[in-house]
Amino acid sequence: MSISAAEASTDLVTGWRARLVDARFWLRVSRLALMEGGPARAWRIFKGFASLAGSARDGRRLRRYARVGDGYAWDLHLPTFPSRAFDAFVRGELERFETGTIGAPHAAVFAITRRCGLACAHCSEWTVLNRPEGLSSNELKATLASLLRLGVKQIFFSGGEPLARLDDLLNLVRQAGDDAQCWLFSAASSLDARTAHLLKEAGLVGVVLSLDHWEPEAHDLFRGRSGTFDRVREGARHARETGLVVALSLCSTREFTTAENLEAYRRVALELGASFVQIVEPKPQGRYGGKDVGLSRAQRALLEDFYERLCFGSEMNPIVSYSDLIARRIGCQGAGERYLFVDTDGAARACPFSARSAGSLAREDPTKVLTLLRAQGCPEPHMACLPADRATT
């Protein structure tokens, strides 16, 4: 695969520029802490925030940030800095450390459609795929309004393939406006130049494109349709030319998770100009339901090494987001703890891999739904999410 120099450029900030952004980041956190009280209290809650960040990173210091619009991000799943969304997130975290109060979840994955032309091996929505839509256009808007009322500041639109409901997607991004930062999960099957322009114009921040292998044939086989690798490549190009941030999402299966495959994937991510790579471990839900798809400890160790090398090494690499690793280190962040999943019926669930609903955000009081979701927690934690001392494989 040959990629031009323009395509290969990324929006990553390293070296002294990254150190400058890092200093501004912590200065803003300090100021927000001071606004919560006097210096002693501010120092106490600042240390709590820094301790959590350090635990998630295993004590490592970041060496890069990604440019996202007019701001910067050090993780795909956190609001960009500086922004209203970032300030709201930090205030919530500071309040959590000071009082133990759990504030608003800062992020939500919202599945807006059941339509999809692929047959992905790992699809968590497989049992409802391509059935009649669960939510009308007005119900989609009502669900998003509920998320915004809850204080969610980062929305990831998913499906199915969200581009299959392009008009609704554009209206939802416009509806979010400045109240939340919007991203798109997509297989890029119809992400052409016009669509990318419309999404950027509506206010979308970036696209998270599914890419599950560095070999075109292997990726196409996993997605159940030929040509999907090429569409991801073209979609990434169109997104970058329009000014959308590009991220890749990898379901790292047993068959894929080797040191050689991860290194080849890193090179392709750079060639596509990806600022982020999201790693998802396979879980026995949806099309994988009832199957033994969990990774071995050795494979999880390979992924952890990949995460640390790309995030904390000195070379220019995309920033890796690895939620399963974070869950093993500091606990699950789903079930309304810091994020939630909303399915194609508008029902709030702990995450895309949990089938249990806490009620409809399209039709019920969102505060009550969130309270029940948190009370339920994760009803069926998967091996990928458990701390190392509880994992047996």
Say which CATH homologous superfamily is assigned. Answer: Aldolase class I
Structural class: alpha/beta
Q: Going across the major beta sheet, what is the strand order?
A: 10-9-8-7-6-5-4-11-12-13
Helix content: 40-55%
Number of strands: 13
Rg for CA atoms: 20 Å
As a percent range, the share of strand residues is: 5-15%
Morphology call: globular
Mean pLDDT: 87
CATH architecture: Alpha-Beta Barrel
What's the CATH class, please? Alpha Beta
Question: Any low-confidence stretches, pLDDT <50, length ≥5?
Answer: 1-9, 388-393
Separation of the first and last Cα atoms: 37 Å
Number of distinct helices: 13
**Biggest sheet statistics:** 10 strands, mixed
Total number of distinct structural domains:
1
Order of helices and strands: HEHHEEHEHEHEHEHHEHEHEHEEEH
CATH domain topology: TIM Barrel
Write the layout of secondary structure elements.
Elements: H1 5-8, E1 12-13, H2 15-35, H3 39-56, E2 65-68, E3 71-73, H4 84-99, E4 107-111, H5 137-150, E5 154-158, H6 166-176, E6 181-186, H7 193-202, E7 206-210, H8 216-223, H9 228-242, E8 245-251, H10 259-271, E9 276-280, H11 297-312, E10 319-321, H12 323-330, E11 339-342, E12 347-349, E13 357-360, H13 366-376
Parallel strand pairs: 4-5, 4-11, 5-6, 6-7, 7-8, 8-9, 9-10
Antiparallel strand pairs: 1-2, 2-3, 11-12, 12-13
Helix pairs in contact: 2-3, 2-4, 3-4, 5-6, 6-7, 7-9
